[in-house]
Design a protein that fits this description.
Among the domains are: about 270-410, Flavocytochrome C3, Chain A, domain 1 (Alpha-Beta Complex), CATH 3.90.700; about 495-600, Up-down Bundle (Methane Monooxygenase Hydroxylase, Chain G, domain 1). The protein is built from 15 helices and 20 strands. It has helices at about 30-45, 85-95, 100-120, 160-170, 235, 245-255, 345-350, 365-380, 385-395, 460-480, 485-500, 510-525, 530-545, 555-580, 630-635, and strands at about 20-30, 50, 70, 135-140, 145, 155, 175-180, 180-190, 195-205, 210-220, 260, 270, 290, 360, 405, 405-410, 430, 445, 605-615, 615-620. The strands form 5 sheets. Strands 1, 2, 7, 8, 9, 10 and 18 form a 7-stranded mixed sheet that branches. Strands 3-6-5-4 form a 4-stranded antiparallel sheet, with no helix packed on it. A 4-stranded antiparallel sheet has the order 17-11-19-20.
Length: about 650
Amino acid sequence: MSQTEPQHWQYPIRYGEEKEIVADVLILGGGIAGCWAAIAAAKKGAKVAILEVAATIRSGAGGPGCDHWSSAITNNPCCPLTAEEWTEALERSSGGYTNSMAMYITARESYDTLMELEQMGAKVRDTEDEFKGTEFRDEKTKLLFAYDYTNKHTIRVWGTTFKPVLYKECKRLGVEIHDRVMATSLLTEDGKQGARVIGATGVDARTGEFIIAKAKSIITCLGNDGREWHSSTEASGFGMRSGNTSGGSALAWRAGAEFTLMEGPVKGSAMEISSGVGAGRHGNTWFACTLVDANGKELPWIDRDGRVLKTVAERYRPAPGQKFFLPAHFHSGEYDYIEPSTAGVEEMVAKGEITLPIYADLTVMPEDERRVIWGLMVGEESRSKVTLKYYTEAGFDPTKDMLEGYQLRMSGDNHVAAAGRRVGRMVRAGGLVVDWDLKTTLDGLYAAGNSLFAHGAHPEAAATGKYAGRKATENALRITDVSSIDRNQVEAEKRRVYNPTQRKHGVEWKELNQGINKVMQFYCGDPKEGEVMKLGLKLLDDIGEEIATNSFATDPHKLARTLEVMDILTFSKLIINACLARKASSSLLGFRRWDYPEMEPEEWHKFVTVRQKDGEVAVGELPLGFWGSLEGNYADHCGL
């Protein structure tokens, strides 16, 4: 292959050259889940390697930081709840369409994981007594709590300290970290789809070198969906959501793993209140902040029964007769767990009772609440830390100034609507089917974090990563017969990977991504229709056969970007096939089909699964609650 280096490229080009990595446990993705998996595996004596497309020290959705640590139930001395009732609440609030295994693991291990993180050097407590004497602080432990001040299941944290500490711990334990390497495929026994996974391939995004990694156990901790319906590097850049590339799902799909919930759920409301552009969401970072309209009229906060809450303190308490509520970002809806909110904004706008735009008014908040929102939570959340920095430098004063912020969206949307069709991303949605070992349907392949179906947030990524690391290591240490890599499989993948380097002109990766976006917007919109989606599949096939084959990459970085979009193409087809497989509408999933309009027919109240077998899509099903006893199965499998 040509070794000609682009004049602008500062690294040597090594297209076609191979580098071999051998480990007991191979982890794909060095985000929160990946680092925790690596730490857990290394502590159990495994030789561990990480492949990470970015820089592990800050990579992943949680890499820049987080402002709260939820599901801190078991062993939390301030929380009266049990893991069982917490997980039951999440399951009921989703109508059963959740991953109770991952949620229960998180409820059991989240607090202990946080304490372990603190021992590594992360900042978890108010050690400087900055918030001493406040309602949300426990004076004995110096922990700060968010949302529900009665049950204290969510802890405010200094999350910007977390990822560097995890990175340092990985290095201390001898984990091999291979940054700037994009995983491109899973290697299987005899090169057969559906067989035991024995390794992975990758490409170095700086040199173009081809990576062949062999291992006894593989854990995928890669991101899930993100750029199927919408992508604009110029307009919005690549954030922790829009930068996701679907790579983990695409390579597992090609290997024959089984997926579920790929048709949803997509949830939201016609108007979401976010408190300032780029400043975080009103449902979590800015929870309980006072809102006013353009005329200074205050929007009422109400509890689940519609009772107007007269004080700020009431916004942080369950309603009379309510044991606890779920934070808004869990999208509850179940009466027992509905959180205090400013619900009904859409109706108030329609009736002319309030005037847009809406502002977050920190000026009238109690001083302690104002400081903890603007100084701690905005400052520690990954998306909004930069907001605090630049707004403060520009002279913003939370005691005097307000922030404008609201987003109008169609029901279920997460991005600006186009042509009346959904262009959003899935929320707590599709991913790999796993068992109580967090093992996928392929032997040798485990999953954690956003690779799981119905995946959750930062604490779940940490807890499931640690759990998967333990289980994958148990498997690896049992294996003595290491299978050889199939060279035919490797050579086929090399041809696929380096195909874009064979041309100097053609289709650029951004154009290719936007073409996929258009198909998804117009052929997999909301509501959906079978024949329309089949046309969408044909168009995606055409893109793959006629356009993607003419893509080009002038350097290794653009090669990696092009391969990302190839994965997005694969993932988009996976989504449409899953949508075709569910022949019923579901309000629980935010899923509507014109050709099957009946909502929630009993026979479709189940998980629909899809996998690839011999190049065809195989559809299956799993019953809701297929995980069985939470407490019993956890005890049998957790490995503690």
